[in-house]
Design goal:
Elements (H helix, E strand, L loop, with lengths): L13 H49 L11 H20 L3 H17 L1 H8 L5 H11 L4 H15 L4 H15 L4 H9 L3 E7 L3 E7 L2 H20 L6 H16 L25 E6 H4 L7 E3 L3 E3 L1 H10 L3 E6 L6 E4 L9 H10 L15 E4 L14 E4 L1 H9 L3 E4 L5 E4 L5 E4 L7 E4 L5 E2 L8 E2 L9
Parallel strand pairs: 3-6
Antiparallel strand pairs: 1-2, 3-4, 4-5, 6-7, 8-9, 10-11, 11-12, 12-13, 14-15
Length: about 450
């Protein structure tokens, strides 16, 4: 064992070395205590935030007319008021609506159903991650069972790490839950879904939420494939082989291209009968010709290297090649030789917008509705300057609540919230949005059409 005092060169002998070591240890110990205290303060802030969010939501539901004029049922009005409130909060915090909805659900559970957990959070005894796990594990229990569960679980939470607590809470929940495991699995299965997000260096993650026997089977098959190929001399690592095997199986077995069902055209099918997946890859024409190494753009991710772009353009039937002018960036060609495409106008909007036009939304334009910015019933035309890609949730939000959108002459989208807060979205697929003051010049339109923002500051504050 290394004696740390041996590494100190201090005049005065061993006592001086030990004293210096003791002073340094005490100083570092104080630093760690300070970090722990600050971490406890974070828990206190989260507790206060939970209370404020619930208070604001309650006020919003009590004053629904702030958000919607819907004459539907009370539950429908509550739903749209909540949706509009979540969008208000998400844009204000610059967080995704999904994240805000998750925070809001956790806050409601803590305030209404888990008072001991909220008290422990408020005093800094547990972290916010502990509180989130408590909410998750208590989900599905009735009021009496929730109190019993919390009373037993809170002591574990206060004396364990989140992973340790989660394991203990899971076992406790299984003993207390009134429904059988079969019933709960059937309900949970309804939420099966996939997730995909990008990482640096042209990589990304793809995950699936599905019944455990399926996910274990996927992993088992991938591992066995990797072991079998490795045994016959495959030079790749086991991890690489498993990843490649899953990728190959997915790409060869997809049954739907991802294009909108109402595109009006037959979907292209491979020789096996499966529909090929489709993704846009935008390539500068000089890059495609090999005269430039300028990066291309992969739909839903961002820049990819020139070599990958050329490979996709030449060999991959799953990708739509979009050529752009080397100087202006204008679209020169949309490859149509590999699979059928929707109507030209829709394709043009998808290429221009790339993602949903709502502030902070990243859903791909190819999976969005095409919305008439100025409604058809108010004289809006079906032309590209009046069309935006909006995902279905934000398309409905625009029509069911007081959220409204306008487009400026230079391509900026201006969203006005029910609380008259204005958010400018960068044009033509550039990510980002910012809030602006309400003194933007407004021009009254002719007829009954909605008001339009005529212009923005010369230098929008991005």
């Amino acid at each position: 064992m290394v004696n740390f005092t041996d590494t100190l060169s201090v005049p005065g002998g061993d006592d001086a070395g030990r004293n210096l070591f003791g002073s340094q240890a005490n100083l570092l110990s104080l630093m760690i205590d300070g970090i722990a205290e600050e971490n406890e303060m974070l828990a206190v802030v989260h507790a206060r935030l939970a209370g404020l969010m619930c208070q604001a939501l309650r006020f919003s539901l009590e004053h629904q007319r702030l958000f919607t004029e819907s004459e539907g049922s009370a539950s429908s009005r509550d739903e749209w008021a909540r949706r509009a409130f979540v969008s208000e909060l998400a844009t204000a915090l610059k967080l995704s609506e999904r994240k805000v909805e998750s925070m809001l659900a956790s806050s409601e559970a803590l305030v209404a159903d888990l008072p001991e957990t909220l008290d422990a959070l408020r005093s800094g005894e547990i972290s916010y991650r502990h509180a989130e796990l408590m909410v998750s594990q208590a989900n599905g229990l009735d009021a009496l069972e929730t109190r019993r569960f919390e009373s037993e679980a809170i002591a574990v939470a206060a004396s364990s790490t989140p992973p340790q607590f989660n394991r203990s809470a899971l076992a406790l929940r299984e003993r207390m839950h009134p429904e059988t495991a079969v019933e709960r699995k059937k309900a949970a299965k309804a939420d099966r879904h996939i997730e995909n997000y990008g990482e640096p260096d042209g990589m990304g993650w793809f995950s699936i939420y599905a019944p455990i026997e399926m996910t274990e089977s996927f992993a088992h098959v991938a591992r066995n494939t990797a072991l079998s190929l490795k045994a016959v001399g495959d030079a790749r690592t086991l991890r690489q082989i498993a990843a490649d095997a899953v990728s190959d199986a997915l790409m060869k077995g997809f049954a739907w291209s991802g294009e909108p069902a109402d595109s009006g055209e037959d979907e292209p099918r491979s020789a096996s009968g499966a529909v090929r997946p489709s993704v846009h890859v935008t390539v500068p024409v000089m890059t495609l010709l090999g005269h430039s190494e300028e990066s291309a753009e992969l739909e839903g991710y961002g820049p990819i290297d020139a070599e990958t772009a050329r490979e996709l353009s030449a060999n991959a039937p799953s990708f739509t090649r979009i050529l752009t002018h080397p100087e202006t960036g204008a679209v020169l060609s949309v490859g149509r030789d590999r699979y059928a495409v929707p109507a030209d106008l829709r394709k043009a909007v998808e290429i221009r917008d790339e993602t949903c036009g709502f502030a902070g939304c990243n859903r791909s334009a190819s999976s969005c509705d095409i919305d008439h910015r100025q409604d058809w019933q108010y004289g809006g035309k079906t032309e590209i300057d009046n069309l935006n890609a909006l995902c279905r949730p934000h398309h409905r939000l625009k029509h069911e609540t007081r959220w409204a959108v306008d487009r400026t002459a230079d391509g900026y989208l201006v969203w006005t919230s029910p609380l008259e807060r204005h958010y400018v979205v960068r044009p033509y697929s550039e990510p980002g949005f910012t809030r602006i003051e309400s003194n933007v010049e407004v021009v009254e339109p002719e007829g009954d059409a909605p008001s339009l923002f005529d212009s923005l500051p010369d230098d929008p504050p991005f």
